[in-house]
From TrEMBL:
Pfam families: Ribosomal_L14e. GO terms for cellular component: cytosolic large ribosomal subunit. Residues 57-132 form the Large ribosomal subunit protein eL14 domain. One of its GO terms (molecular function) is RNA binding. The keyword Ribosomal protein applies. Keywords: Ribonucleoprotein, Ribosomal protein. Belongs to the eukaryotic ribosomal protein eL14 family. One of its GO terms (biological process) is translation. This is Large ribosomal subunit protein eL14 domain-containing protein. InterPro entries: Rib_uL2_dom2, Ribosomal_eL14, Ribosomal_eL14_dom, Translation_prot_SH3-like_sf. The lineage of its organism: Eukaryota, Fungi, Dikarya, Ascomycota, Pezizomycotina.
Length: 146
């Protein structure tokens, strides 16, 4: 028989060191790291952010309120203290990597879009219509020359 190829799943695992994004509750939109797994529904998180308004204190969080990100702080020991976690957080440049990710950028775009006024949404619509018209004009010119 042939050799079996065994590959790991591409799902994000709940693991110590995994960076999570709060999607609900008082820390909504903030990043934290999983420090300890309490049970199959709760984890202990800590978010030692550089800016105090983005920091998350160490507490138990239900997995239903967080989203697992692809970011990981590798080789994080279980129940790591706040000081060593902060140094690992800064060494891994978690906030910089998060800001560069597509997920964070799309969240920022949608946040900016939600903040637009009615007149600004109208201007965006007009600019999109103008761009679409220019694309159609260029495509017609290419078709006519072919």
């Amino acid at each position: 028989m042939g050799d079996a190829e065994i590959t790991t799943s591409q799902w994000r695992l709940v693991e110590v060191g995994r960076i999570v994004l709060f999607s609900y509750g008082p820390y909504s939109g903030r990043l934290a790291a999983i420090v300890e797994i309490i049970d199959h529904k709760r984890v202990l998180v800590d978010g030692p952010s550089d800016s105090p308004d983005q920091a998350v204190p160490r507490h138990s969080a239900p997995l239903a309120n967080v989203s697992l990100t692809p970011l990981i702080i590798p080789k994080t020991p279980r129940a790591i203290g706040n000081g060593p976690l902060r140094t690992a957080w800064q060494k891994e440049e978690v906030e910089k990597k998060w800001a560069e990710s597509n997920w964070a950028q799309s969240r920022e775009r949608s946040k900016k879009r939600r903040a637009l006024t009615d007149f600004e949404r109208f201007k965006v619509m007009r600019m999109r219509k103008q761009a679409r018209f220019e694309e159609k004009k260029a495509l017609a010119k290419v078709k006519a020359s072919a």
